[in-house]
Specification:
There is one protein chain. By secondary structure, the protein is mostly helical. It has a single domain, classed as Four Helix Bundle (Hemerythrin (Met), subunit A) (Up-down Bundle), CATH 1.20.120. Helix content is 73%, strand content 0%. It has six helices and no strands. Helix 5 packs across helix 6. The chain is elongated and about 55 Å long.
Length: 171
Amino acid sequence: MSAQHHLSVHAGNTWLSLELAKKEAVQLHYSHTTLFALDIDLLWVENLTQRPALAEKVEAFVSRFGRLQDHLGEKLLPRYAQLVGEQYKTQIDVLNFAERAGILVSADEFLAARKLRNALVHEYMQDAQDFLDSLHLARQSSQMLFDVIAKTEAELTRLGIEPPTGETSLS
């Protein structure tokens, strides 16, 4: 495989991952905006079990938050690293690379946000205060995820790597 073909495969895969991340971000942004337009406090959380429509809104946010974070950590950032010639075996290595590259402000912050998802899955049924705290942290961490997408796209543009014109596999 020629170096040019190798680059085009990585470029195509990175752009496809970026486009998917942008679509997922639109969904997360919608959930983020509609959920946090509400006045969320401890009483609100304590009443979630009696308010299934609101619980569903929370679950949509949590699901979208986790899905976007998974996609960034498992697809977009590793593919970007491959594109620029970096090969890493572990996710922490990829996150540290993304931090050094200026795409991610903090690998530790990304990993901390990852732990939030676990705290947000049905935690309101066990500890309302922990859930409320985790929900507010996820609200803040969502912006980090949106920033990763914007910075990755800016880096691709800066490197002169164009979006693919044809179909590319996501191998």
